[in-house]
Amino acid sequence: MIRIRTDIPGPNSFKTIEQLRRKNGGWAVPFPFVHSSQGNGCYCEDVDENKFLDFGSQVATNPFGYNHDEMIAVVKKYSARHPLKFAGQDFIVPEHLNLIDELLSISPKGMDAGFLVNSGSEAVENAIKICMHRRHHMQFSVSFEGAFHGRTLGALSLHHSKSLHRRGFLLESNKELPFDDSAPEVLRELIETNGADKIGFIALEHFQGEGGYRIPSSMMVKKLFVLAQKYNIPYLADEVQSGIGRTGKWWSFEHYGITPNVFSAAKALQVGAVIAPKKDFPDEAGSISSTWGGGHILDMALGIKTIEMIKRDKLLARNNKMGSKILDGLHKIEEISNPRGRGLMIGFDLPDSHIRNMFIIESLQKGLILLGAGERSVRVIPPYIVDQPEIDEGLRVISEVAKKVNSNGFESYGKICEFMDCGTTHT
Ligand SMILES: Cc1ncc(COP(=O)(O)O)c(C=O)c1O
């Protein structure tokens, strides 16, 4: 159960946040509390002994919540070893092979090679390189309105989410397609005007994350895919946020019955990965590499365990079941609009971004962690172990806070906004 003992942030959190705010060069406006590493299941505790219900799963990176027995067992197994982190492309450990094997076991037929890296951006970056290295005439790539693919410069080139992320950086050439059913027609025009060989690749999130938790229609995806195939344009699926079972299938592109040429994974996997047919990777040894990629034993062991547990406990089906319950509950809350989702990747909308931000802040004050996305959406992405009592508790907080939407009766949020920028959404 949620337990809120102090203002948020509490005094102990406040001290650390205040110092870190001054010293952290990349201050990204965090949630205003400091984890104590205590907590269990879907609940985490802060250093002021507040206990939050986490419906944000550390931005989809934490599918098994806090202090799960089996995850702790993995951590213990490796606790007496050093180093835990190897230069994994040059010095191999067994976990490297085991994780790639697990990944390929959940990937479509024909996807017979994986490459492990350190983050989602690095996964996208390498997926881009796999697409590009044989596209000798390419002049630009294609991605979509609202797209978020990471913050390294290659991945950032595909970005059409917040302008803040791109401002001031020199990027690769890219064209933006609308994120709706008109996209295939716009792509066709691009092909006709420029020639297909000028298009390096098409990159798509099959459940758009940061840009607003939007689900592309079947028609949009299928037509885009058919065009890409017809003109041999590599098709890149970014599964960093939506992959590893969150949407009730291993990969969100599976909802469309397609297999991309290459796809990225990270977040819930604990490491970054890019997956494609072996024949499509560069032939030259070392053409793609990464010092630590495939070398962090603990991360890989946790990734292996994650996939094993999803398989063993049939969590794809369970995520669908639990997700439907959450969606049913959200549909009953009048003040919110457009509840939508697949599996445990769920979003809803509020009238505008100010109300959305107040909504998230007020939910946090009541002990429920929710994340924003896009202009005015809220993400509901609990860990895969979420069960009826947590769903009831989370929905209770959401419906309580929702009552304030029409009256705009949000309470003063005190210190919270010093840390949580009202315009900030989390990737
Ligand atoms: C769809 C998508 N692609 C790429 C990334 C980048 O991942 P990372 O932050 O691990 O570099 C993210 C998240 O940040 C994401 O949501």
Can you walk through the features of this model?
There is one protein chain. By secondary structure, this protein is α/β, with parallel strands linked by helices. It folds into 2 domains: 11-54 and 314-419, Aspartate Aminotransferase, domain 1, CATH 3.90.1150.10; 94-312, Type I PLP-dependent aspartate aminotransferase-like (Major domain) (Aspartate Aminotransferase, domain 2, 3-Layer(aba) Sandwich). Helices cover 36% and strands 16% of the residues. It has 14 helices and 15 strands. The strands form 3 sheets. It has a 7-stranded mixed beta sheet, sandwiched between helices. A 4-stranded mixed beta sheet has the order 1-2-3-13. A 4-stranded antiparallel beta sheet has the order 11-12-15-14, covered by helices on one side. Helix 9 (218-230) links the parallel strand 7 and strand 8 (235-238). Helix 11 packs parallel to helix 13. The longest helix is centred in the last third of the chain and has 20 residues, at 388-407. Bound molecules: pyridoxal-5'-phosphate. Pyridoxal-5'-phosphate binds next to helix 5.
